[in-house]
Structures are given as structure tokens and as C-alpha cells.
């Protein structure tokens, strides 16, 4: 074989090896969701690739047979083609044994370098860059190779299957998608600029609906504006003017005996028509949805959907009212500060090392703000105030503090045993920072304002 013929043969072998390398990496890197979308759009090649991904054993067997066969042939042809020429060149300066050995080494290095660069690195990086486009083009040629090499493919595939059984392993690809996978994709999309940071946060909040209890979004008991069944007309009108909410629970005797609720629209209509308001009128008081305080936000949404309501009273295991929740409260949890007014912010960053946080702030929001994975005794509390109570083992007082995870949590304001504000500072900044005056307490509405 002449030098030109040998070089041509080496080029063909490099192209063949590049084909198998590209076919291998493109199938492995192809995104199943993208392929399924292409198949749904009518691309028959995507259906073929999806079947190959489900049972990739024969596919990768052909790849390995082709790559190893090409590598062996490349070594044989390369040494025979380049060895004599390098031997003749090296013989001019070195002895025969040294020239012979040097010719073999130089030929090997050149051939190996060509295969590594052109048949391995370049095609694999190209396959990683555009896996779906390439695997669709290579699927049919690979199917032909699988048909031609069927006997060898069967032998080696059955051998590999036997090894999997011996070691108790599964050869099937796990295609299950978890919420963590989706969140990781959203994080990657935000870093790439495909998703805005706020859009990513909304998606994250949606997944948290299954883990956050209704207590994290409710208006607490001491903030609930309610009517008694026997309240006179004048009292009802004064309370509407003082606390203009969209919905009011109606109670019998006290707040723990809720008999229904009244919609502010019905009350305003009577006021505008100059009609008397009496909550003894059953047509005015609607049946109220009662939910336990251990439900998650997603379960509360499902209850709202089933009964076609957007307001619920929350009770604990002793049937005592602990708060109320509206559909708007749940959606505010999802949308975060996209819809929350500035004067209702529960977390205010004072500087890069300190935050002023409302005591009723859900603990998930605190963790996210401070970039913490968890706080101790997780599951025993829902809010920052609950965390401080668990850590101190008593009702916190002003100036009480807790040190954990590189942060200092200091109680800044307490109103009738309710923790209004907590100053959170990074530990290294707490010793050097001056005293910061607390901001005015954030008022929490009992229900959505009209």
C-alpha cells in the first residue's frame, strides 16, 4: 500500500471513529423532553430515537464494536504506512535499533493524536453541543449498523445483560422527573438569562405549596376582624369603617364559635340602599369553610376549588380559631413581592449584613433570605417567632437573642407577647455594627382588602 493510499485509509478510519463517537454522545446527551416534543410535532425520527433511549443496549454495543475495530485497524495501517518513512529519516542520525524504535513511537504518537483529536474530542464536544439535531441524523445509519452486526450485537449485549444480573443492577434508564430536577432546570435557566429571577422565584414558590402549611400564609387570630351575631347595626357600620376588609367571620358569643361569614359587598349594598344590617338574617350570613391548621397550602387550594369559596377559617386540634386565610393570601405566597405592597414587606434588608424581619414571617422565607438550608428543630414551628420560642424554650422578651448558623437573631420589639420585629445579623458583622433602631411594626390585614 502506497503512502497516499495509507493516508486515505487512515482518514476513512478517523471519519468512521468520529461517526461512532458522535452517535454515542448525542444519544446519551439528547434531552428526552425535547425529543418528545419533536415527536408530538410529527417527527418520526424522534420516535425512533426515543425507542433507542429506552433500550440502548444494542445501540451502544454497536458503538463499542465499531470504535474498537476502527482503533485496531488504525494502529495497524498507521504503523505500516508511516513507520518505514520515519525509520528511513531517523536512520540518518541514529543507529538501526534506535531508529526502528523511534519510528514506531513517532508513528504511534501521530496516529494516536489524530484519533484523539479528530475521532474523539471534536465529535464528542460537537455531539454535546447539539445532541438532538445530530442524533436525529445519525439514528438511521446506526439502525443499519445494528442490523448488519446483529449476531455480534446479540452476543455482546446478552453478555452485558448477564453482568448486570450478576451484580443486581438495572440496565434501564431512569426517566422519572422530580421537583428537584425541575427546580435545577429553573436555576440553570435563570443563570442563563432565559428566566428572570422573579419568575424563577414564583416557580419555586409553587413547588413549596406542598410543604408549607396554611399557618404560614394565614392572618393570625389577634388580627382577625369579626362580627358577633347579635351586633347592632351601628356597631357593624363603625367596624366596617374602621377595618375595611372584604370578608368578616360571624361568630356566636366569641371568635371560637364561628357560624359563618359575611361578604363586605353585601354589607356595602345595604349601606348604599340605606337598609338596616342585621346578622341574624340568614340570607346575609354565608356558610364558612373550616380547615385544620395542619393542611398544606396546596390542600387548601383544593378545598377552595371543591366548595367554590375563597375564604376559610383555620382551627387547631382543640377547635380553637387560630386565624383566617383567603385565596389572595395563598396567591400572595406564590407571587411574593411581585404583588405585595411595599408597606407590607415582612423582610427589610437594612444593609448587606442585617435584616429586620417580622416575627410572623414564614420560616421558608427566612431560610431563603439568609441562604440557609434549615434551622434546628425543623417541623416544630412555622414562623420566625416560633423558631425563637423553640430555641429559648419560653416566650421571648425584647433584647433576647439566639446565635445559630453564623447569624444572630435579636428580638427588637414585642407587643403583648407577640414578637413584632427581629433583627438578624451576620455574626461577624454583629460585633462591629452599631445599634439599629427598629422600623415601625408591619400591620397584617386579617383578610384581603376590597
From TrEMBL:
The lineage of its organism: Bacteria, Pseudomonadati, Pseudomonadota, Betaproteobacteria, Burkholderiales. Belongs to the UPF0053 family. PaeA subfamily. CDD domains: CBS_pair_CorC_HlyC_assoc. The chain crosses the membrane at residues 6-30, 59-78, 98-122. It comes from Verminephrobacter aporrectodeae subsp. tuberculatae. Keywords: CBS domain, Cell inner membrane, Cell membrane, Membrane, Repeat, Transmembrane, Transmembrane helix, Transport. This is Polyamine export protein. Pfam families: CBS, CNNM, CorC_HlyC. The keyword Cell membrane applies. It is found in: Cell inner membrane. It is a multi-pass membrane protein.
